[in-house]
């Protein structure tokens, strides 16, 4: 007899919270491989933070791009820049062809490729700085790396270094560089000076004449070593800028990384003032350091340092009256009485400092009359000169007249206008503090454009003082456009390009492109990335 089979028991229903969830929301057991590669893992997060910190400290790709540009410029300069008339290194070597014909054309091409890479690297660095992905240490690393290849290059976009050495040679041989031109002492040093300055006395202060004299004595008249030594001496000014900018930004309300990018990493500064080299770099370095000392309440010391800047090049003296306002405003009591006190103290310190420099250099005050030699330069970067040239051009349609009378009139009007601007800005600066420094920067800009002669690197004067201010995005874009254009308006051998109109049009197009690229990473839409994948700079 068969036993009836019992029904199979059904499993007890699962009433847990996990079973109540839809299948797609149920928690699965962790996958070891997925856990190991998860970006949320603490080790991965720590590595990401370290990488971001390293990139902020050293934007490696951008730095290397700029280094490649500097190296290309240094190599191209061997054949295309302000080379020696008789080069002892290349004259009897197999590389002398780079200074003639197609060889020189190739050198020019290489130099301009390097210039383009340098500008590209600077703009890319500016994007990173604006969005605070790169800080001041990253900018300083870029400045150092981009400067080193230029130290050993022939003079870039100028032959002024040979003038400095020739003037130091005059002083070393007991001649007065404020009375004699380089041609008074014939030889290799004099023959490499531009024909414009062969018979003109030195317009520089006693401290710079002393420095040039020491360089010539040390290098023994070797032009290559002399250029390198001069450049190293000027780089001291760049170091002072890098030291002063953080403090200036703190006082003036700007960001340190932005200020360093604007002034220290700027190709206008590195290529012209370091690559040149030009003594303006030493002047603005001392100027920046002195202004910071005054803002840090070390007033007399700051005024002494700015006076040393004026003992290199007289332009720096324009900042001294503005610094007196900064000092006077910090004293209690009547502003008028405080101004008299601080002005007398500052003037005494300046006179004593300049006297010591003059006595040690063994020169006199002949540099004051020699300042007129700059009027030899005629180009339309100077507004008075531009007005004279335009008036001369229009008049020439009707009658033939020389340019000289036009220059005499417009430059006189320009100097009167400049005097009015200086007095007005100085009076508005009486509130002291950061406003006085801003007014000093505007005054330096007026000096650059209203003087009888203007050269592209003169715009470094106001830029150093203004870099620490709070810059808007539009201001940074305009600054990039102006800097790149000023960088390009001189040919690599030092000749001006200001009258090569087709070239200037191309330079303007490149400058606008660089400026737009600061805020739009791919303005020409050449990238293969989708537009929505491109990073945007605010």
UniProtKB/TrEMBL annotation:
Claim: Glycosyltransferase is one of the keywords in the record: yes
Transmembrane segments: 58-86, 106-125, 137-157, 214-245, 281-296, 303-327, 347-368, 380-400, 406-427, 439-459, 465-489, 501-519
Membrane topology according to the record: Multi-pass membrane protein
Listed Low complexity bias regions: 7-24
InterPro entries, sorted: MptA/B-like (IPR049829)
UniProt region (Disordered), positions on chain: 1-45
Annotated keywords: Glycosyltransferase, Membrane, Transferase, Transmembrane, Transmembrane helix
Pfam families: MptA_B_family
Subcellular location: Membrane
Family: Belongs to the MptA/B family.
UniProt name for this protein: Alpha-1,6-mannosyltransferase
NCBIfam families: MptB
Biased composition (Basic and acidic residues): 28-45
Organism: Actinoalloteichus caeruleus DSM 43889
């Amino acid at each position: 007899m068969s036993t009836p089979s019992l029904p199979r028991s059904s499993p007890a229903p699962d009433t847990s919270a996990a079973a109540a969830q839809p299948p797609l929301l149920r928690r699965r057991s962790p996958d070891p491989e997925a856990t190991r590669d998860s970006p949320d893992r603490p080790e991965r997060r720590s590595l990401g933070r370290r990488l971001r910190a390293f990139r902020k400290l050293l934007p490696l790709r951008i730095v290397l791009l700029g280094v490649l540009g500097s190296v290309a410029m240094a190599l191209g300069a061997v054949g295309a820049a302000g080379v020696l008339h008789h080069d002892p290194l290349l004259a009897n070597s197999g590389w002398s062809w780079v200074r003639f014909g197609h060889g020189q054309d190739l050198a020019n091409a290489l130099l301009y490729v390097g210039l383009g890479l340098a500008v590209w690297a600077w703009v890319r660095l500016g994007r990173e700085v604006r969005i605070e992905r790169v800080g001041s240490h990253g900018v300083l690393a870029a400045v150092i790396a981009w400067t080193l290849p230029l130290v050993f290059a022939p003079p870039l976009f100028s032959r002024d270094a040979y003038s400095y050495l020739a003037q130091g040679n005059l002083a070393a041989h007991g001649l007065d560089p404020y009375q004699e031109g380089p041609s008074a002492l014939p030889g290799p040093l004099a023959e490499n000076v531009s024909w414009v300055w062969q018979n003109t006395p030195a317009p520089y202060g006693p401290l710079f004449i002393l420095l040039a004299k020491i360089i010539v004595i040390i290098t023994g008249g070797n032009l290559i070593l002399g250029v390198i030594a001069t450049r190293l001496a000027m780089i001291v000014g760049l170091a002072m800028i890098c030291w002063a900018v953080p403090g200036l930004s703190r006082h003036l309300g700007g960001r340190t990384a932005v200020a360093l990018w604007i002034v220290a990493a700027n190709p206008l500064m590195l290529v012209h003032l370091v690559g040149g080299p030009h003594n303006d770099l030493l002047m603005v370095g001392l100027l920046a350091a002195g202004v910071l000392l005054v803002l840090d309440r070390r007033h007399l010391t700051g005024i002494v340092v700015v006076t040393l800047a004026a003992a290199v090049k007289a332009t720096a003296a324009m900042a001294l009256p503005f610094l007196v306002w900064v000092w006077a405003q910090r004293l209690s009591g009547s502003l008028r009485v405080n101004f008299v006190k601080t002005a007398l103290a500052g003037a005494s310190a300046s006179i004593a400092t300049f006297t010591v420099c003059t006595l040690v250099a063994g020169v006199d005050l002949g540099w004051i009359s020699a300042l007129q030699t700059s009027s030899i330069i005629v180009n339309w970067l100077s507004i008075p000169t531009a007005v004279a040239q335009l008036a001369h051009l229009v008049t020439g349609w009707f009658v033939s007249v020389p340019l000289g009378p036009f220059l005499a009139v417009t430059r006189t009007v320009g100097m009167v206008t400049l005097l009015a601007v200086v007095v007005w800005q100085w009076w508005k600066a009486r509130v002291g503090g950061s406003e006085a420094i801003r007014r000093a920067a505007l005054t330096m800009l007026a000096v650059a454009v209203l003087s009888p002669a203007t050269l592209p690197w003169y715009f470094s004067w106001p830029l150093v003082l203004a870099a620490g201010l709070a810059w808007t995005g539009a201001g940074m874009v305009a600054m990039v456009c102006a800097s790149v254009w000023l960088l390009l308006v001189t040919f690599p051998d030092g000749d001006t390009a200001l009258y090569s109109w087709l070239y200037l049009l191309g330079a303007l197009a490149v400058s606008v492109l660089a400026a737009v690229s600061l805020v739009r990473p791919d303005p020409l839409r050449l990238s293969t990335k989708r537009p929505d994948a491109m990073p945007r700079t605010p």
